[in-house]
Specification:
Layout (H helix, E strand, L loop, with lengths): L1 H17 L3 H12 L4 H7 L6 H40 L19 H15 L3 E2 L5 E3 H4 L19 E2 L2 E6 L5 H9 L4 E10 L10 E11 L4 H16 L5 E8 L2 E10 L23 E10 L1 H5 L12 E8 H9 L12 H4 L4
Parallel strand pairs: 1-5
Antiparallel strand pairs: 2-4, 3-4, 5-6, 6-10, 7-8, 8-9, 9-10
């Protein structure tokens, strides 16, 4: 019996050392140490042996079992580490590669694209693109733009003020850059100023934050006709080469005279009627769509920068402001201003 135990120990030790996988090692454990294994049967039959043989045979069998269990544990650790290394190599993922399936490459937001179109159009007309601070002083946002004390635009229900600094606010238009630009450069000056502006207003056609492009041209001999020609070129670039303009008298504190600018409807061609004789839903049957405000720069505004070369007796010019969201809504048929800021991919992907 002792010889057979030694044979089992030697055979099992060699097989365990030669095992090449965890599955093969488990098969050997069952074969040599399982319930039906020969060594297990020897241990169970100890009681049937003569008393003088029980101690020696039982001790040899237990030593063989413990040795094989230790060998199995060592081999299991060795094989587990080896198999893990192989798995890591075979399952390696290059995280720099695109996903599967790869996501389509993104594109500029519709507001950014519309802003760039306006900028490109004005640069083509000889204008320079300028940017200014979104947190502005009352002086540049109101005072230097001919907004007297008590003007409705200064009221809390229209403007976001910084609580600890009542003369600091979120700019309500990009017009403060008119004065800042003239302070930085003598005439002639031709600039457009894109950027975010802020007002206390929120509904389907208004947002507390929106985008505007301001235009300013100052030089000798500029007239309302130059303003009309400039805006006509811009509107035709935005809405089609057949567009016409209409100027209507209006009032803005920093221009005099001031005008509201309408563009002929590009859906009905300015007739007010669609092909089937129905009233055009875009221009409400008027044939014209209000698009922006403009006018000749008020001499009072030039008075704030007279020391920088802007003598109202020698130079004059015009200014205009156009809402980027309104242009984008009209060009692309977006019914609600808030869709631009909802970050709904279903809406944004339509304009790739």
């Amino acid at each position: 019996m002792l010889e057979r135990i030694e044979e089992i120990r030697g055979e099992a030790s060699a097989a365990i050392a030669a095992a090449g996988s965890s599955a093969e090692l488990e098969e050997l454990r069952v074969r040599y140490l399982g319930r039906k294994a020969e060594l297990t049967g020897v241990l169970r039959g100890i009681a049937e042996l003569p008393p003088e043989e029980r101690g020696e045979v039982g001790g040899a069998a237990n030593r063989a079992r413990k040795e094989l269990e230790a060998l199995l544990e060592q081999s299991a650790e060795r094989l587990s580490a080896s198999e893990l290394e192989q798995q890591l190599v075979s399952d390696r993922i290059d995280v720099t590669l695109p996903g599967a399936p790869p996501r389509p490459v993104g594109h500029p937001h519709l507001i950014a694209r519309t802003t760039r179109l306006i900028e490109d159009t004005m640069v083509g007309l000889g204008y320079h693109v300028a940017e200014g601070p979104e947190i502005e002083h009352d002086y540049y946002n109101f005072t230097a733009l001919n907004h007297p004390p008590g003007h409705p635009a200064r009221m809390l229900q229209d403007t976001f003020y910084v609580q600890s600094h009542p003369d600091v606010l979120l700019r309500t238009h990009t017009s403060p850059m008119q004065v800042r630009s003239m302070e930085a450069k003598p005439p002639p000056i031709f600039v457009v100023v894109p950027g975010k502006v802020y007002r206390r207003d929120s509904d389907a056609t208004h947002s507390p934050m929106f985008h505007q492009v301001e235009g300013l041209a100052i030089g000798e001999g500029l007239t309302l006709a130059d303003l009309q020609g400039t805006l006509l070129a811009m509107c035709r670039a935005l809405f089609g080469a057949e567009r016409e303009l209409r100027l209507r008298p209006h009032f803005f504190p920093f221009t005099e005279p001031s005008v509201e600018v309408d563009v002929s409807c590009f859906q009905c061609g300015g007739s007010g009627e669609l092909a089937g004789g129905e009233r055009c839903n875009l221009c409400k049957g008027q044939g014209w769509i209000e698009i922006l405000g403009a006018g000749m720069v008020d001499p009072n505004v030039l008075g704030f920068v007279e020391g920088h070369g802007y003598d109202a007796e020698r130079v004059q010019g015009f200014a205009f402001g156009i809402g980027v969201e309104r242009v984008a809504m009209l060009r692309h048929g977006v019914p609600d201003l808030r869709r631009f800021f909802d970050n709904d991919v279903r809406m944004l992907e339509q304009f790739g």
